[in-house]
Amino acid sequence: MIIAEVKNYMDSENSKHLHLSSMSNEPLRALIRDEIKNIVSSDSKKGPVRRRGSSRDEETSIRKFGSTRDEKAVELIRNEARKVAKEELLKYSQDKLNRRDFALHSGGAKIISKYTSKTYEQWPNEWYKKTLAYVTGKGITRGKPPVTAISHDTNVGQCWPLSGQEGQLAIFLDRKVFVTAVTYDHISKDIATDDVLSAPKDFEVWGIIDDGTVSKNDDNDEDFGVDLSDDFSPRMESTEDKCGRRDDDQYDDGLSHLNHLEIDTNGELHLGSSPRHLYLGKFTYDINGLPIQTFEVPDHILKYNKPIRAIIMKIISNWGKPEYTCLYRFRVHGDPALPTVSASDPKIK
To answer: Which member of 40, 47, 292, 307 has the greatest number of CB atoms within 10 A?
Structure first.
């Protein structure tokens, strides 16, 4: 990309003093590595990033691209190098929050597909193609599955698109947690290839309490009043099998009987209708802020905190994309709920 831009520029100027055909990727990598060192050094000193490098490595890298007399071409290369360097630093910093993520898929968390909104689908415009797609399933462009939103990879395009501007993501955490904060990651405006209007704006977070006090007979599935230990028993097919180990066709076919979720998105499956539904707060993600934003559960809610085993991110609005909302990564932080042990337990001596 960088080489192509420089080549287009130089061709338009009828300049011949940069020998682009002899360029290799190694000089560019050296330039990027030097720029990363500059940014890290600047950050550690709390000072501005050095714009004009004077190191021998940087000057050598630039000379390998051609004469430094062409200021515009050199500056173009510098700008692209800075962009790549910042992207790499951003990816490096994404898991440096020093807070455990209990919603991480690779850590054992799972998507609760029954309570998660439908993935966005793009159908053909022509009626005959639409009919064919309805019958055969071919010609439909489907987004990535919801499990994408609880995975490490947050590169451009690695997001889960849900239909419309409202919806929800339901997650079965890797263990019971006293939730204290959540984090949402979106792609940076500086490196986004598309607009960021599909990012969520206002959202609520709800926890499903699992403190062992609810009767197993309370199986009102409609308002999530089920016994979690029963509902997510290892004897049942895991949501990881449903979401993470199938191709997109099988995954979407598995959700075909849940189309009523789209109708219920305004009510979010009656969240708040059961004493097991714990409201953890309403938050706003700012697309003009940092790509990674952490939201603390308010103190007045923490006073009534209870062990949470499932959590729902309820999207109320996005930043202006009517067709779909993209979720890159949603994290859940807190303290593990330690199992309570009776004094009469024979294991206690």
So the answer is: 307
Q: Which residues are 256's β-sheet partners?
A: none
Same domain, 79 and 130: no
- Mean pLDDT for 155-179 is 94
Q: Which of 53, 3, 51, 54 is nearest to 27 (CA)?
A: 3
Residue 187 domain-assigned?
yes
Question: Are 110 and 74 members of one domain?
Answer: no
**Residue 45: domain span:** 2-93
**C-alpha torsion angle, residues 271, 272, 278, 279 (rounded to 10):** 90
Average pLDDT for the chain: 69
CB 119, CB 255: distance < 8 Å: yes
Looking up residue 233, the CATH number of its domain turns out to be: 2.60.120.260
Distances from the Cα of 94 to the Cα of 69, 98, 331, angstroms: 39, 10, 11
Among 255, 268, 258, CA closest to 316: 268
- Count of H-run helices and E-run strands, the chain: 10, 11
Q: How far is the C-alpha of 164 from the C-alpha of 125, rounded, in Å?
A: 18
Strands (DSSP E) contained in the chain are 110-111, 121-122, 141-142, 160-163, 167-185, 202-209, 277-284, 292-296, 308-315, 324-327, 329-336
Residue 86 is assigned to a structural domain of this protein: yes
Q: Tally the domains of the chain.
A: 2
- Which of 188, 164, 167 is CA-nearest to residue 94? 188
Do 30 and 175 have their domain in common? no
pLDDT for the residue numbered 250: 29
Could you tell me the pTM of the whole model? 0.59
Whether residue 133 is found in the same domain as residue 211 = yes
Classify strands 277-284 and 160-163 as parallel, antiparallel or unpaired: unpaired
Provide the pLDDT for residue 150.
96
Length of the chain: 349
